[in-house]
Every structure is written in structure tokens, then in C-alpha cells.
Predict the 3D structure of the following.
Amino acid sequence: MATVNSVLGPIDTKDLGFTLMHEHILVGFAGVSQVYPELLGDDPLGRAVNKLKQAKEGGVDTIVDATTTDLGRDINFIAEASRISGVNIIAVSGWWTDIPRFFQGFMPGMGVSAEQLTDVFVREIEEGISGTGIKAGILKAASDYGGVTPQAEPILRAVGRAHLKTGVPIMLHSYSPGHVGWQQLDILRQEGVNPKRVKLDHSNDTTDIEYLTQLMEQGCYLGLDRYPGRVVSSRARTNTMKALIDAGYADRLCPSHDSSALPFLSPDWRRAEEERRQYNPHGFLYIKNTVFAQLREMGVSEEVISGLCVNGPSNFFEGV
């Protein structure tokens, strides 16, 4: 067993329970909850806690909040939501802003080096975030349809170096339709990172089983998230999961939703929440309520289903 930094302190991997490995409590832009709280609508903490309590009552024990600081991470908000709801929350360190349609050229303009970023990420893991003493438990970098761009590479290398200094594993926003995972893994290998400490997220944005199987043969974990799904349907995503289960990889799969307890900034947050309810009335329980039912229809055993969202996350944090 091993321990993981949660926002309320270290927890043993055996106590993670049913874990959603890529979600968000709130997401926006850096500082939004402190500087422009009115943009989050009425009582954002209460609304987020209600969503988390529903998840807890439905059997969700732990959530990895994949919100980096540039996406609006508010570590005090997250910790309070965890304390009130009873859901373990693991916060992330790292940076997301490689995505080409957002902040293009931002990092080079700042002149920030991989060495500087490494020091920042290590501090958030070993000392705490923003002077709070609340420590990150996972690292994150991102590359999208542009591949590993010049903006992304120093962030990715810094995440790899911070991992080697701290032992904290890595989650990657990856553009699976473009097989970008290969580029990301290659750079992390150059930094000395073992692929088994890496989770490639949004992997079920493709139905290319050959690509996904080849990644798993390298030892990495796959985040099968973005449920219910748009471009790739929920059923197609579950077909992909079933194929990977049949190939023997159930214990290295991490199903999740990439959803948020609060809707992304909207001029009308009430309408945004109603639209979200229509899109996914199950919230953080969609996998339990819908995906598992799909897997049962496909003939997956209850033993395997009960291990999904349990074995993969614990194995990932333990470095198995």
C-alpha cells in the first residue's frame, strides 16, 4: 500500500474506494472564484457540495480534481467541499494551457523554463498550494490536436522531472484521435519516467483499439472519461472499454466523466445547470448507473465491474 495526498491530508490507497480519476469541482480561469465569485452563480459552494453528496450517497468515495491553477483551481474551495461532503478529493499540480485554442503563446511569452516549473510543481506537492499546506497528489500536463507543441514541451518535461523528485504520478490530457500519446510518452521517457506512472486521459475519444492496446503494452494507464460523450457516443466508449477488458487490461483502466460539479462560466448559470441535467441527469453517477449497465448487457462479470474505478486507481497511485 501507499499514501496519496488528498486535500484533507494523506490517505492510504486501500481507503480510496470507488474513485473517479478525472473530474472537476469548479472550472473557469485563474482566480475566478476569488476575484469574480458572482460569475459562479448563487452559493457555488453549496451547489458543489450537493453534487458531491449525491455522488457519495451513490457510492463514490474519491474524486481526482483535474483543475490546474490556470483552469481556476481554488484549493480552499475544494478542501471545504471535501470536508462538508465527505468525498475524498485529490488536487492536481501542473499546467493545462497548451491547448492551442486557448492562451496560445502564453508560456513562451512569460519566459518560464522547465526548471522553474519543476520547482513550482514540487513545492505544491511537498509543501502545499498557495501557502495553505494543502498538498497536490497528482501531476498534470496537456497536449491536444496540435501535438506536443513548443508551448507544451517545457510543461511536460517539468511534470516528468517533478514526478521523479516526488514520486507523484502523472495524468495527461491527450488527443487520442491524433495518437498524441506517443509523443507525450516519448518526451517523458527522455526525462526518465516509467510509463506505468502515466495515465493518458480522454483515451476513449477514439475507437482505435490497436492504438490503445499498444499504449497499454507500454505499461501506462488509460483514462476512459468524457462520459456520456458527444463526438464519440456513450455506447461506443463502453464498447472500447469492453474491448480493453477482454484484452486483459481491466486493472489499468480508470473510467471517469471529465465533468464538473459547477457548470463552466455562463451568463445564465441556472440555464446552464438545467442543460447539464438534461445532458446527464446522473451527474458523477453516470458510470455507475449507465455504463455498468451497458457492460452487464455485454456480458462483463460483476467481479470485473465491481473492480472498475477501484483497482485501476489504486494500482496507479501505488505504481503497480
